[in-house]
Design goal:
heterodimer, A: 1183 residues, alpha/beta, Rossmann fold, Pyruvate-ferredoxin Oxidoreductase, domain 3, 38 strands, 17% strand, B: 334 residues, TIM Barrel, eight-stranded parallel beta barrel, two-stranded antiparallel sheet, 12 helices
Chain lengths: 1183, 334
């Protein structure tokens, strides 16, 4: 049967059908495979053996691999899915599984391993790191192959006993939708050898036939025993080939261990594996058609590497072999595949046909870098030069070590009969969803082949999506983005102002614009540059006001089906009536389960669409006075102008190697230069009714609301009407609250929390959301004035209050987090209170993405250029990484003190003052900074080696604040072992857990913080067990400061906890309730909702302070009242609970009852804890 | 003496005039069974709120689409569940179940404020086996341009349309706020309505004084509220031949008796059930029976409408005179 699905689904279907145990853990881009397995199991879908696989989420990939190992040893057919760091965490078990000759399969969506930076995108650096484990490695190059090789892996491992790592390229294959011929369960079953399964089961651990496995061996026999497995590896390639033959008989699709395409008498042959083969095949075909002697040798089975088959398939005429590796191994002679090919040719090239061919190697496609037929042609052409680069790169410009080969991007255009369409949309407007439907419609309901690939933004709020769709009479193997589209759609009019939409249009292409302007008005509103491109490329331009139509249909903002209808009408891929019928049937398929009214509304939108679609008459000349906006403002620093702005403008691919830092180090304070302008409504302050509480600024997730208190005389230079309040009792001072109008995301959280309401008009608050278009000019002017007002003197502020803390400059601003994010207000607060002294270790997750994803970072610096120093190590090691930073700091401080003591005579009383300084509050820090500055002055004049050394270290004598930040996936699950160890260490670190109760960044998978009864990915039937009480586990140590806070429920308690945690000179743990889009809540009212979560006892607020654990003190303090609401009443306001109640009411009600009991029990426990006296001898009272 | 409590309502034969009105207790098969055992002669299932159904569906879509397909790391944030039980499916299952398991007429109820969508839901309700349909029309006029007559028209038009589509009888539950109820009732009869249910209580929201916003508020009815229905049933009974049901304030057997006296074919209660449980129905039936026994009535035919406006001894007491009397009673005589 033909289906149009992505690589992840293609693989998951096979893996699920062929497995009895599936261990899962989320990691991009492999998560969807685990999610599908979980959903299928939850709905009772059976495997080919008629049972429902046990699908179990583990705490890490290391855990998944351990469970896999156990399940295999237990005689089950088992599998797991992973990528990147996840695969690396599986390595120890992989050696074991292979060493024990245990049949099993790991499916990998190959992804870059984090080095100088994390990247979620695809290359082979992860799988190449696994090549010594003893796993066989089978590579897929397309969605069809991903399915087919998945099955061949499951079949071959059973017969060979060698475990298999099957991999496809992350994103390019895992996320590409393509039309494939799917496998039925019967054919999957038929491929799995019954006897081999029996053998696998017989080898399992069973007390009825006990054996011992996993021995410890000594120098006498280990080596021999290691070699004893050789015969199995020698047979593996034959077994794989024979399974491929069986597969071909069953399906008609013939694969070989190595496949060859191109001229049988090729002189130049490319050797590669993975999705790049699609682009390479197209290039080779066009070059062969031109009469060139070229070919492509596609590696499918990479390990064990079958030299004989490799030599056999390599044309004897080959003179030059170009080996392309999608990985980098710094310091190696060449990359792994290159070295394998060199060795293979050297060992077994038949001398009878002459000298072995010359081999050159190159790297391509790291982190999903584009790899196109034009690049293939370039490397093939380069390889025949007299002195080709032996180790080149292709796809980038390396102006440093000159490895790169240039290519002509316009060479080898795509065939004319392929329809190529590119759509620019917003994540929220449904563009991608409609395009996925379009690909399915054409792929599954016509004879055409269809492909969809989707490029997403790195920002969450206001995320831009670009869809690349191809339709062709032939199978589509174009594994690269569309450069010359016949159809380009711009689903948001403002994109034309800031993005190069028309760039991707081919000559005489069709451009469809969703425009608020009619066809006879729109021309004048297009930027000059766009007009010129339209004229130059002779584009046909059509407009439709899809936003208006969507509103009329009751689908405000959801313009997708309207634009989809226009696409079909303008491209004629299908007859119009047929297209509309199929769109409607797709709508029905997508939405029927969710309700008929949404189906009806979409039908209405489709029916009305075409009447409003009009062609624009194109004038002969571009005349617009509107010009495209620059990516960053003119005052941006050099690096931002040179590098960051190019990335923002979507031109990062054009940056040469020399433009980029060599070690992954980037400047902070850059988000302010990326004015994203994504809000439709912005908050406007009414100073008349404001009560100066500071809540609006406190909760603003994007630091887009600022408060300042300043000398009222400065108002003399203010723009007219600049809003301010004179401070009561200090009328020479004024206070202003100001929005950063171009940085605000329009989430509305500030308005929700504002307690000041007009007496006359109940709906009017001291801050109201108003249309940005009306206020933007005035607010930009006001914000500019506001920015140059001086910051408050930190030493004079009461920073333990909401109001006082919000006069502190945020050093975390304008993040790309989701509008209304529940995590960012805590980080902003942290940055305000301690940012100028903070070092932050940040676990991978949402906070590392909005914190550190290029192009810009929200981590910022103050006027003295001080600010948080931030780094992300890994997901699993963040506590340890933070501890390491603290150890380094302690070591530096100790050394600096030692040096200062040794210079005591020369420095005098200043040394004593510095060494004895208290450093408990802002005044102390300011004094110490001033002393250290004096010291540095003094040191200049000292001719002493210790003085030179101390000059480098002295600044650390001002107390630093070490923070370890991450989400619950890190703290509760993957990083818990390390977190626990750090808590036990007694060291002075502050740990902030942004607790959303799910793996937010990877799409809302359950963690051990997920509450009972919540439906989440990997817990589709509702989480059945209660959430882990991490706070009490930590409090159990006695010596750890622990606080549970919810900034929306009790901001004062939250601020107090931050101060207490930071001032405690031992380990501190703050569990911060963070609402999240994955809860299915109204993000605007999420802060108020936190109040209810505390009131119902779901999230009790408390502080455990070891400093009180002496002399009969009670270190545990509850900061909230006894629950006054039932949990269910509050939970039903969150879709994660309410959905389950709809879907499976009885089960949900049962879980809700248990959840209430959890809460009752926890409260009872906490009440008892409040009365507990503790006395700790190992208290760290280094005050 | 054998007392015959049977009655005819909307053409349905009921073993007594006691109907369990739409409320949470008629929302599950278990509680319906308890109501039946306690003496309910028919039950009105809770309303399908058309707008609520559509709102729920849109909310589910909004939730599932929220931030979906925006990030390379997460196509969505919720597992796609097998079913969301949106729309009327759950309701229709309850209806079919009730019909299967209970030997009393089951009346379905539809609530909405506009014409659109009524026909689909009403059709599904009929197919699922409802014995009758109660329309709960709820239109709050906020536009000064909208006349009372146009609102009446909407009601009547809706009944006309549905009568064309359905074979089952239709009762219309209305509120008391019409300029001329007899005029409206007459129009309803002409449109084909099989009965009127008097009155919908139109729950009005309260104000949260801290949050300064309207909040939904549910107050149970009190016995004195019934007097509104008593007056209007007494007036309407002589003008229309269709079924009339009294609702809103039925708390005691005397309330039932009074309702029957003014001309009701049946009484429907909810608040009493919610506050005192299904057993109230037994009290009402026994109380009705003993009142009739004490007053020597053998069946409801004798009782029904014997105090209608035309048949009562003091019709002036029904209208303004009642008001005058109340005034004079409290005014010291000169």
């Amino acid at each position: 049967m033909a289906m149009t699905i992505d690589g992840n689904e293609a693989v998951a279907r096979v893996a699920y059908a062929a497995s009895e145990v599936i261990a899962i853990y989320p990691i991009t881009p492999a998560s969807p495979m685990g999610e599908l397995a979980d959903i299928w199991a939850a709905s009772g879908r059976t495997n080919v053996f008629g049972t429902v696989p046990e699908v179990v989420e583990m705490q890490s990939e290391g855990g998944a691999a351990g469970a896999l190992h156990g399940a295999l040893q237990g005689g089950s057919l088992a599998t797991t899915f992973t990528a990147s760091q996840g695969l690396l965490l599986m390595l120890p078990n992989m050696f074991k599984i292979a060493g024990e000759l245990t049949a099993g399969v790991i499916h990998v969506a190959a992804r870059s391993v984090a080095t100088h930076a994390l990247s979620i995108f695809g290359d082979h650096s992860d799988v190449m790191a696994a090549r010594s484990t003893g796993f066989a490695m089978l590579s897929s190059a397309s969605v069809q192959e991903a399915q087919d090789m998945a099955l061949i892996s499951h079949a071959a491992t059973l017969v060979s006993r060698v475990p298999f790592l099957h991999f496809m390229d992350g994103f390019r294959t895992s996320h590409e939708i393509n039309k494939i011929q799917t496998l039925e369960d019967a054919s999957i079953h038929a491929m799995l050898d019954r006897q081999a399964i029996d053998g696998h089961r017989r080898r399992s651990l069973d007390p009825d036939r006990p054996v011992l496995r996993g021995t410890a061996q000594n120098p006498d026999v280990f080596f021999q025993a290691r070699e004893a497995a050789n015969p199995f590896y020698e047979k593996t390639a034959d077994i794989v080939q024979s399974q491929m033959e069986r597969f071909a008989q069953a399906t008609g699709r013939q694969y070989r261990v190595f496949d060859y395409f191109g001229s049988p008498t090729a002189e130049r042959v490319i050797v590669m594996m993975g999705s790049g083969c699609g682009a390479a095949k197209e290039a080779v075909q066009q070059m062969v058609d031109r009469g060139e002697q070229v070919g492509l040798l596609q590696v499918r089975l990479y390990r064990p590497f079958d030299i004989a088959r490799f030599i056999e398939i390599m044309p004897a005429t080959a003179q030059t072999v170009v080996v392309l590796d999608r990985t980098k191994e710094p310091g190696a002679i060449g990359e792994p595949l290159y070295l394998d090919v060199v060795a293979a040719l050297a060992e077994q090239w038949p001398r009878s046909v002459g000298q072995p061919p010359r081999v050159v190697g190159g790297r391509y496609g790291l982190s999903s870098k584009e790899f196109t037929p034009a690049m293939v042609q370039a490397v093939l052409q380069h390889s025949v030069e007299s002195t080709p680069k032996r180790h080149f790169t292709i796809g980038i410009r390396d102006d440093v070590t000159l490895t790169s080969i240039p290519w002509d991007p316009d060479s080898l255009p795509e065939p004319a009969d392929v329809t190529r369409a590119v759509f620019y949309g917003l994540g929220s407007d449904g563009t991608v969803g409609a395009n996925k439907n379009t690909v399915k419609i054409i792929g599954e309901e016509t004879d055409f082949h269809a492909q969809g690939y989707f490029v997403y933004d790195s920002q969450k709020a206001g995320a831009v999506t670009i869809s690349h769709l191809r339709f062709s009479p032939r199978p589509i193997e174009s594994t690269y983005l569309i450069r010359q589209a016949n159809f380009v759609a711009c689903h948001q009019f403002d994109f034309l102002q800031r993005m190069d939409i028309v760039e991707s249009a081919a000559k005489q292409a069709t451009l469809l614009i969703n425009s608020p302007f009619t066809h006879d008005q729109v021309w004048g509103h297009l930027p000059f540059e766009v007009q010129q491109q339209i004229i130059d490329k002779q584009l046909r331009v059509f407009v439709i006001d899809a936003n208006r139509l969507a509103r009329q249909a009751g689908l405000a903002g959801r313009i997708n089906t309207i634009m989809q209808t226009c696409f079909f009408a303008l491209t004629n891929v299908l007859p119009r009536d047929q297209a509309i019928a199929k769109i409607k049937s797709a709508i029905e398929k997508t939405y029927a389960k969710r309700g008929t009214s949404i189906v009806d509304k979409n039908f209405a939108a489709v029916d009305d669409a075409l009447a409003d679609l009009h062609e624009v008459v194109i004038p002969a000349q571009a005349t617009s006075r509107v010009h495209k906006s620059p990516a960053v403002s003119a005052d941006a620093p050099d690096f931002v102008q040179r590098v960051t702005s190019r990335i923002i403008a979507g031109q990062g691919d054009l940056l040469p190697v020399s433009a980029l830092p060599v070690d992954g180090t980037y400047p902070t304070g850059t988000s302010r230069y990326e004015k994203r302008n994504i809000a439709e409504l912005i908050p406007i302050w009414d100073q008349e009714i404001c009560i100066e509480c500071g809540l609006c600024a406190l909760v603003c997730p994007h630091a887009a609301i600022r408060t300042k208190r300043y000398d009222a005389q400065l108002l003399n230079d203010s723009p007219a009407g600049f809003p301010h309040r004179l401070i009561r009792g200090a009328e020479d001072e004024a206070l202003s609250i100001q929005v950063a109008p171009q940085d605000c995301t329009g989430c509305g959280v500030c308005v929700d929390v504002c307690p000041a309401r007009s007496k006359e008009i109940a709906k009017h608050k001291a801050i109201d959301m108003l249309p940005k278009s009306v206020h933007i000019a005035q607010e930009i002017e006001r914000f500019e004035f506001f920015q140059q007002l001086p910051e408050s003197d930190r030493t004079t502020l009461k920073t333990d209050t909401v109001k006082g803390s919000q006069l502190l400059l945020p050093l975390f601003e304008y993040s790309g987090a989701c509008a209304g994010c529940g995590e960012t207000p805590y980080l902003k607060l942290l940055s305000q209170l301690f940012g100028d002294r903070a070092i932050i270790a940040n676990a991978t997750g949402c906070s590392s993405i909005f914190g550190g994803n290029l192009p810009t970072t929200p981590w910022s610096r103050n006027a003295d250029q001080r600010g948080p120093a931030w780094s992300n190590s890994l997901f699993e090691d963040n506590a340890e990484f933070g501890l390491g930073l603290q150890l380094a700091l302690e070591s530096k401080v100790a050394h600096a003190r030692q040096l200062l003591e040794s210079l005591h005579e020369q420095v005098g009383a200043l040394a004593t003052e510095i060494l004895a300084a208290e450093q408990r509050n802002e005044q102390d820090y300011a004094s110490q900074r001033s002393r250290v500055a004096n010291l540095l002055n003094r040191l200049c004049s000292l001719d002493h080696p210790a003085a030179r050394e101390l000059e480098e270290l002295a600044t650390c004598l001002v107390r630093r604040s070490q923070w370890i930040v991450g989400g619950d996936g890190w703290a509760y699950d993957i990083g818990f072992g390390g977190l626990d160890h750090v808590l036990a260490s007694g060291r002075n670190v502050n740990i902030l857990v942004l607790d959303t109760g799910v793996y937010s960044n990877t799409g809302g998978q359950a963690s051990k913080a997920t509450p009972r009864g919540a439906s989440a990915k990997f817990a589709a039937n509702g989480r059945a067990v209660h959430r882990k009480d991490l706070g009490m586990m930590a409090a159990g140590y006695g010596s750890v400061y622990v606080a549970q806070v919810a900034i929306g429920a009790n901001p004062a308690q939250c601020i107090r906890a931050f101060h207490e945690a930071e001032s405690y000179r031992g380990p501190s743990l703050i569990l911060a309730y963070s609402h999240c889009i994955a809860h299915g809540i109204d993000m605007t009212t999420a802060m108020s909702h936190q109040k209810d979560l505390v009131k119902c006892g779901f999230w009790p607020l408390y502080r455990y302070d070891p400093r009180l654990a002496h002399d009969g003190g009670h270190p545990f303090h509850l900061d909230c009242h006894k629950p006054s609401l039932k949990f269910k009443a509050v939970a039903m306001q969150e879709a994660r609970f309410a959905m389950l109640m709809r879907s499976n009411p009885e089960h949900a009600a049962h879980l809700m009852d248990l959840a209430q009991k959890d809460i009752d029990d926890a409260w009872h426990y906490y009440e008892q804890m409040s009365g507990v006296e503790r006395e700790f001898s190992d208290l760290i009272l280094n005050e | 003496m054998m007392i015959d409590l049977s009655t005819s309502y909307l053409g349905l034969q009921l073993e007594s005039p006691l109907i369990a009105s739409a409320c949470p207790l008629t929302g599950s098969i278990e509680s319906l069974r308890a109501l039946r055992q306690a003496g309910a002669a028919a039950a009105v299932l809770p309303s399908i709120f058309k707008e609520q159904v559509e709102h729920d569906e849109m909310e589910i879509v909004r939730m599932l689409d929220f931030w979906a397909l925006s990030s390379p790391e997460s196509a969505d944030y919720f597992p796609e569940l097998n079913s969301y039980n949106t729309g009327p499916a759950g309701y229709l299952d309850l209806l079919a179940d009730a019909k299967r398991h209970l030997d009393m007429p089951i009346i379905a109820s539809l609530n909405g404020d506009s014409l659109a969508g009524w026909i689909r839901y009403a059709g599904l309700i009929e197919q699922a086996g409802a014995d009758a349909l109660e329309l709960n029309i709820y239109q709050i006029a906020t536009d000064p341009g909208m006349s009372g007559a146009s609102i009446d028209d909407t009601y009547v038009q809706l009944v006309q349309v549905l009568k064309r589509e359905l074979r089952i009888p239709i009762a219309v539950k209305i509120g008391p706020f019409f300029s001329s109820l007899p005029h409206l009732a007459d129009a309803m009869v002409r449109a084909g309505a099989d009965g009127l249910v008097l009155f919908n209580r139109y729950l009005a929201p309260d104000i949260d004084l801290e949050d300064m916003r309207f909040i939904p508020a549910l107050e149970l009815s009190t016995p004195d509220e019934l007097r509104l229905a008593l007056r209007w049933i007494a007036i309407l009974r002589d003008n229309v031949q269709i079924s009339l049901a009294a609702t809103g304030g039925i708390h005691s057997a005397h309330d039932v008796v009074k309702s029957l006296l003014v001309g009701a074919n049946a009484v429907a209660c909810a608040s009493a059930l919610l506050s005192r449980g299904a057993g109230v129905l037994t009290e009402l039936r026994d109380g009705l029976e003993s009142w009739m026994r004490e007053h020597d009535y053998a069946n409801l035919e004798q009782l029904r409408g014997s105090m209608s406006m035309k048949k009562c001894p003091n019709p002036e007491g029904l209208i303004r005179a009642n008001y005058m009397k109340a005034l004079t009673s409290y005014t010291p005589s000169v």
